Amino acid sequence: MTELDGTLTDLARQRSVGEPIVSLYLDVRWADEQQRERVRLFVQERVRHTLAHYPPGTPDRPALDRTLQRVLEHVNGLTTQASPAEKDGFALFACEGLGLWQPMSFRRPFTPELCTDAIPHLVQLARLADDFEPAIVVVPNQAGADVYEVRLGDLATESSLRGFVPRRDRDRFNPGAARPGQRFERQEKDGRHEEAFIQKNRRAAAAEVELRLSRTPGAHLVLVGTAQNVAAFERELPERARARVIARLPRPREWESTGGARRDGVVAGAAAAVAEHERAAERRIVDVLVGEALRGGLGVVGPEDVVQALNEGRVHRLVLEEDFQRAGWQCDRCAALGATRGADLCPYCGGDLHIVQQLGEALVARTLAGGGAVEVVAHANRLHGYRGVGAFLRQTAPTGLRGASPPWPTASLDSGRA
Known about the structure:
The protein is built from eleven helices and 16 strands. The chain is α+β, with helices and mostly antiparallel strands.
């Protein structure tokens, strides 16, 4: 779960039966005027191309024209800023008829895209939420730990958990007047005294980290430092917290500096650790999904079976390749989706059909709107053999029994178009 989950669900439930919803994604990493100009020209060209599909006199043309002009003005404002953008990616969803205007900026760049549809296009945003799961980076030390929270590829908070550690002679344990031959004994007592403070600080820092993990259920834990410090700190963590450690990294030399360089290093280190963990997790997910589908368990693969399960409200988690491209259809009466070509009428209710050019976007929106999760994976050979899509199910059939299949989808008229 990430901070974007609620936003994705809210956007997925947006439907427009008149003026289409505008979805805009941009890469706003620019270092010179030429890059800014490329962004401006891309948006201008896409706006011109979009309006060409709505001739003057079309009922929804005036509202769409105003929305697109507002989008143009907003993008022009971004590209004329004197200083470079602090974020690398920009997303915007807009529709005057729905009162929708939602701009968002992120550290990760997007593939440039401007499109209009009855639903917002969310695949790129879902991939961002999936790839940039929150991470808590902990740098333990004798006084406690430095803790950084990284969310959506950006540094959200940073704090230093510090306790007392005796460092000067006046801070050390004083055993009183020493007799000859007792110097080693005093040093040993001083060492035990100092270690007691260090142990206390580690426990306090571990308790704080555990509390932060409990507040962010989906967060990963990344430990940074020497092997000795990391191992000593990890021993103080409870088992449930240790299970969320995805990486143990040496402290980079760049972290010795302060300010922006260290923060950038924290974000980059966390992003690399989460990305490596995510790639491995994706491979496991695809293997488990295909295995479930082949043995008739809680999984299906292939567009037709996934669409049927989605129409029946059985999809728990959609798994979609990032380059999934396929057209489909949607029923105007019961809102059912379809992946087969050549159909004239809805096989469920006999209603009229309209073409859905980007079936993947419709699958993502329908899954999120129904309370399911979306896993956007890299091009995976095993899943690609099943045309790039699969789903984990809540149950094998609507009745809960294997093999039972109703003649009617559970998608209702109130679910809107996807």
